[in-house]
Write a structure and sequence with these properties.
3 helices
Length: 113
């Protein structure tokens, strides 16, 4: 909101602007938290794989980062989506991550046999 808009607005207009700004910041914080959770999970996956490759001669550390062999679909949640669409997108993202996790675990299980 520019200075001119501010001085020519009613208190109600300013309240709407503040509410929208708060929603945007909340959405950005949630998105950042989801990225941090995924990063922490992925780091744990790499550490587990590294420990397994040290403890087992058959287990090997991946030559490429996880996800390069198989494409993980990028799913974006936007503000203009309904709550139902957002929830469906989150569930699809979780399913993709679990598929990646299961795939990486099956590689380790195959190598440890």
């Amino acid at each position: 909101m520019s200075k001119k808009e501010f001085f020519h607005s009613t208190p109600n207009d300013i309240d709407v602007f503040i509410d929208q700004y708060d929603k945007l910041k909340k959405y950005e914080a949630e998105a950042n938290f989801e990225r941090m959770k995924y990063s922490a999970w992925l780091t744990g996956l790499y550490v587990r794989t590294a420990v397994a490759s040290v403890l087992s001669k058959k287990a090997k550390y991946p030559k490429k980062p996880f996800g390069e062999e198989e494409q993980v679909q990028h799913i974006e949640v936007t503000e203009d989506m309904s709550e139902e669409e957002k929830q469906k997108a989150r569930e699809e993202f979780t399913k993709n991550m679990m598929d990646l996790f299961i795939h990486s675990n099956s590689n380790l299980a195959d190598e440890s046999e």
